[in-house]
Each structure stands twice: as C-alpha cells, then as structure tokens.
Design goal:
- This protein is α+β, with helices and mostly antiparallel strands.
- It has three domains: 185 residues, no CATH class; 68 residues, Single alpha-helices involved in coiled-coils or other helix-helix interfaces (Up-down Bundle); 125 residues, Heat Shock Protein 90.
- 62% of the residues lie in helices and 9% in strands.
- It has a five-stranded mixed β-sheet with strand order 1-2-3-5-4, covered by helices on one side.
- InterPro entries: HATPase_C_sf, HATPase_dom, Sensor_HK_TwoCompSys, Sig_transdc_His_kin_sub3_dim/P.
C-alpha cells in the first residue's frame, strides 16, 4: 500500500506532464467530436430524431466549457488521481442536465477512473468503479430526452465504467507482476554475489591456513638447525657452518613463499584457521576417494617433480584437485576420471588436469556458476596462474590449471 501511495505522489518528469497534457487534449477533442457527431451517427434520419425528441447538438461556448471541465483536469490525473476523478465525475453529473445527457461525453470521467484503478489499491479501484457506475446509471436525465435512448446511453456508460476500471486494474496487476519479477531477479543477483564473495573468502582463509603451515614448518626447521649450529660451533666449526647455511637457505625459501602469498593475507579479515594442510603426496587418497564412489580413477604423476615446486603451490594444486574430485562425485554423474600432474621446469610451470566423462557443463552448470569452480578459479588466480573448465575429450568436464613456479612479488601500491 505504501508503495502505491509513493507511486501516485512521485515527482513527475516533464515528459510525464507532456504525455498527460496530450491525453487531456485528446479527450477534449474526442468529446467535441462526439458532441456534434454521436447523435447523427446513431440516428442518421432527421425525421426519426425529431420524432424521438432529439436534436443534433451544435457546439456553443457553454458546451465547449462543459467538455473542458470534464477533460482538461486530466493533466493532473497521475499526480492527484482521486481529486481529478471526483471533479470530472461531479462535473459530468451536474452539466449533463444542461447539455443533453447523451451528447456530453464521459471520456474524461472514464480516463480518470482508469487512472485510479491502475495506480491505487484494489479496494480503491472497486470503490471508484462503484461510484462511477452509480452516477452514470442513476443521474437524472433531461426532461426532453427520449426514454429509450436515455436508457441505452445510461447502460452504455455503466458498461464503459466497468471496462475502464477492469482495464486499469489489469494494468496495475501487470505492473506489480513485472516489479515483483525485477525484485526477485535483483534478490537472486545479490544472493549470487554474496555466495561468490563467501566462496572467495573461504579460499582466502584456506590459503592463509596454508601459509601458516608453511611458516610453521620452515621456522621449525630453522630452530632445529640453529640449535645444532649452537652445539657444534666450538667442537665442529665446519658442521656448524653447514647448519647455519641450511638455516639461511630454509629462511630464504620460506621468505620467498611468504612474499608470494602476502597479497592473500592483506585482504583477509580476522584470524585464519590453523589446521594442518596437505600436498600432492596425498593424491593417492583422491583416487581412492573416487574409486570408493564407484568411479574408475587413474593418477599420473610421473612428470611431476615435487622438489622444484614450492610448498604452497604444491598444496594449492592438491586443494584444486580435491575440489575437482568432490565435484565429480557430487555433481558429474561420471563413471571414470583421470588426474594428471606435471611440471615444466624449463618454462617454470606446474600443470594439473582433471578429466571425467560426466554430464558436462551445460545449461545451469555453466562454468561461471558450477559448484566449486569459483573457488578453484580464485585459488589459481591468486597464484598468478590460469584456470579453465572446458569440455573433456571423454565428453564430460576438463579442469586445466597452470601455475608459475616463480611467483611475482606483490607490490604495495
């Protein structure tokens, strides 16, 4: 209800006022034509008109003024629907006594009734229609008017009032339906954006957890080597130097990995979880998981050299493969799957490919919206890699990921 009041009271643009002015002038012109032509068209024979006591109306200043009073206020019909309706209907009821009832057009009151029905609530539309029908049917006829023609005209006016109210209410319901559809679409879009942000944040937390694990592992190694160097510095200086060199190498490697991932931590909010992470040494668990779900699975890692892959990239590849396997089991309806890991040391890239023979990415399962794809894509993007979800040679889906082994340092700008 509040929305309906806001709609009727909204600020009209210059175009809105121009449209309503054209409608008012159009109603005025139509009423003038009806004033002079309606009777002649309805009863073309002059003898019959005189026999029925009807005279063709000749426009006068009084008649034109009466038409203006019932039509020109339509300029403000959308700004003040009820006052315009009441004015035009009352003016018609009063003036038709002086202007020969069947000749004075009801165009103005009908347009005003249509406006009330199309912009106000259903109860208001019914009330306005009832008032208009009552006025049209029970307004007193002029004494010199033919009874048959008067009854015919009154019935016609009542039917036109019902039609105008029904048409206005139908337009109102159509507009409400369109507005509801738009609101549902906007709500769905907001939900989709919220889900996308949630998935991205989940990936950021997961990657932050991996950084924590890498840091803890590296610092533990540094602590052990430093303790060994402290014990050997007097007894075996050569061994102490070797331990210190190992400390420096471990610290340098960890620092490079932390710098590569620091961009993820910059955008996170709150503490990250600190559960242990897993790398590609657990890939056999994924094939076992697939086979346990009744899917024939194969794993190819002969071309993968874990020694040249930074720990955080190795963990990320395993995480993507795990998400792909989960999608295959839950959504693909596949019977077989293949996971391939490889490194190209010369070019400096690590590659992961996951194929299945499931139902593929069609319709509602488009790559941008498919379960889990957004998280996998975000993980690869944060590591400056590439991600593709495309048709597999087997007819299902192929997940193809490539991540550079040497990460670009994040800038502070």
């Amino acid at each position: 209800m509040d929305r309906l009041f806001r709609q009727s009271a909204r600020r009209l643009s210059a175009t809105d006022w121009l449209i309503d002015a054209v409608i008012a002038l159009g109603a005025f012109g139509f009423a003038c034509l009806q004033l002079t032509l309606a009777v002649n068209l309805l009863i073309p024979d002059d003898f019959m008109r005189r026999l029925m006591g009807i005279q063709a109306m000749v426009p006068t200043a009084l008649s034109l003024g009466a038409i203006a009073l019932t039509t020109l206020p339509l300029v403000a019909r959308r700004r003040f629907p009820w006052p315009v309706f009441a004015w035009t209907l009352l003016a018609w009821a009063v003036l038709q006594m002086e202007m020969n009832g069947i000749a004075l057009s009801v165009a103005g009151p009908l347009i005003a009734l249509f406006t009330v029905a199309s912009t106000r609530s259903r109860g208001e539309a019914v009330a306005a229609c009832a008032v208009a029908v009552a006025v049209f049917l029970f307004a007193p006829a002029p004494p010199d008017q033919s009874r048959i023609l008067t009854q015919l005209t009154l019935f016609q006016n009542g039917a036109l009032a019902l039609a105008a109210a029904f048409a206005g209410y139908a337009l109102h319901e159509h507009q409400e339906h369109l507005r509801a559809v738009e609101e549902r679409a906007l709500a769905a879009e907001r939900t989709r954006e919220t889900e996308a942000r949630r998935r991205v944040e989940a990936e950021r937390v997961s990657i932050a957890r991996e950084v924590h694990d890498i840091t803890a592992h590296s610092l533990s190694a540094v602590s052990i080597q430093a303790a060994a160097a402290e014990r050997l510095v007097d007894r075996d200086p050569a061994a102490a130097r070797a331990a210190i060199a190992e400390v420096r190498r471990t610290a340098k490697t960890a620092l490079e990995e932390i710098r590569a991932m620091i961009g993820v931590l910059r955008t996170g909010e709150g503490p990250a979880e600190t559960a242990p992470t897993e790398g590609t040494e657990r890939m056999a668990d994924l094939t076992a998981y697939l086979e346990g779900a009744g899917i024939q699975a194969s794993l190819a890692m002969e071309g993968y050299d874990r020694a040249v892959v930074p720990t955080f990239i190795d963990v990320a590849l395993y995480g993507i493969a795990r998400e792909a396997a989960t999608n295959i089991v839950r959504h693909a309806d596949a019977t077989r799957a293949a996971v391939t890991l490889a490194t190209d040391a010369a070019a400096g890239w690590a590659h992961l490919t996951v194929d299945d023979d499931g139902r593929g990415l069609t319709g509602a399962q488009a790559p941008a919206d498919h379960h889990g794809l957004l998280g996998m894509r975000e993980r690869a993007r944060l590591l400056h890699g590439t991600f593709a979800a495309e048709p597999s040679p087997w007819g299902g889906v192929r997940i193809a990921v490539a991540i550079p082994l040497v990460q670009k340092e994040e800038s502070d700008g």
